Amino acid sequence: MINNYQKKRKLGDVILANPQLLRLIYRFGISPGFGDATIEEVCHKHEIDPEFILVIINSFLDNDFSPSNMLDKSNLNQLISYLRKTHEYYLTVEIPFIESMIDDLCADPISENPDLVVVKRFFSAYKKELTEHINKEEKKAFPYILLLEEQLNSKSQSIKMADSYSILAYEDEHDNVEEKLFDLKNIMIKYLPEPFNHEIVNRIITELFWLEKDLHDHARIEDNVLVPKVKELESRLKTITRKAT
Ligand SMILES: [Fe+2]
Ligand SMILES: [Fe+2]
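Above: inputs. Below: predicted complex with fe (ii) ion.
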């Protein structure tokens, strides 16, 4: 493990060493101006569980960080809430930001290159694919998981397994939505027809790298933290319903 940040570290120092975390903590409503406050102090101010934010920070910084044992079942709600905030960030902040740079690139009067529209078409198809991926999780998987947890937490005797869906179905169809970004970066780095505004292209490529890494990390949390937790809930619920019949 290269970076295992703890609650008593000053958040400002952590950000100075890892500025890419700014976008991550923004999803929790945290923005610069934290002075010398520690991670724990900032979290208390924003009513966020410091243990949870540390899991997210450390897993973002270290691909080998294994957060599953640090998240017990009571964290499922906040985990889904974080995943939802991240989806919202992609669709309302990051994708529109890249889109606006691509619009600037295609509309640049100095280059006037109609071939650049290929980048626009590619990204617009990518946006559609990402939106569909997110909608599937938001409308199907997450409500199922929250209902599962609610059933387990209720004292009701009438709980039953949903027979039409399980986390296995989610796992089977959970595709790598960041892969197409690699293709777009490849096209832009190797084959973009001249002339074009180099500065804008460099900015777009840098942003695509960032989004690809962030999406990869997001999927890692879904696959390695969310799925095992839900499997555990499903098997607990199965045991309870078996005993009840
Ligand atoms: Fe997701
Ligand atoms: Fe996903």
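Residues 83, 87, 134, 137, 218, 222 surround fe (ii) ion (ligand 1) (CB under 6 Å).
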